[in-house]
Amino acid sequence: MNATTRPIVIAHRGASGYLPEHTLAAKALAHAMGANFLEQDVVLSRDGTPIVLHDIHLDSTTDVAQRFAGRARDDGRFYAIDFDLGEIRQLRVHERTHLDAARGGHAVYPQRFPAQHALFQVPTLEEEIDMLAGLDHSRGCRTGLYIELKSPNWHRSQDRDMSSAVLDVLDKTGYSQRPEQVFLQCFDDQTLQQLRGQLKTPLPMIQLIGENSWGEDSKVDYDYLRTPAGLDYVASYAQGIGPFLPHIYLGRSASGDARLSTLVTDAQTRGLQVHPYTFRRDELPPGIGSFTELLDIFIRQAGVDGLFTDFPDLASTYLQHAMPAA
Q: Are the CB atoms for 206 and 275 separated by under 8 Å?
């Protein structure tokens, strides 16, 4: 990151620290809070419509089990791709809850919006883009889209091409040729290469980097991607990386100083932007005493180019004080 350039604030699933994730209400609030980009996780409905939802399943954030009892697959889960858009529009979205019986549907983050208030709906990608474009117009600003293609290989196994579906929406809404306003991200390297090569999109790509143990929808080795050789590989098709916070912050030294990996510098040396995830006030990494301290470490010390946060207002306020406009 250039010392005079502010990192971009990416609203992770919207202002999800305050309102249920990926609802239009959460996105409108994030827009008002000054986020530079708003994230859209995208999966497909049975009729091929891109909808904004973090999971391929509906049961963690909606009342699908109550409205459509008996529609679960053999694993007990309710898959978005098994429901037409008209059925999905009947669902009500609530704060994310645990599924396991031991925790009985309790909210993952109990201090956030009350999980019993299911007041919202699942938006389509097109609807969300139209709303954000409308807010840009009425508020006189220009915010960006940060779209993640969720489980594209799994969708292919269900005879659905997510990449083409997302690009079709971007083309229809006028965003397909706005590389300054749209990022495309994915955990799967082959999908990003498909978007760049076969589908020839000019939009910048971000290679998400997780842990191999997570079982992400990809055959890529995330440990390798964090090496110099792996970053050279990423730079051949992407414009940035989205690493997990612990890939950069390694804890405290014996003297109490923050220990940082070389990942940010290694990536930036190769021309890659670095946008780590996820900055949460209510889920701080070990050894971090406050949200401000967390931001200090990643912005002042590590020098990241952007950050995903559930609390875009807090990140924006921090940057206004830490890096005032010239």
A: yes
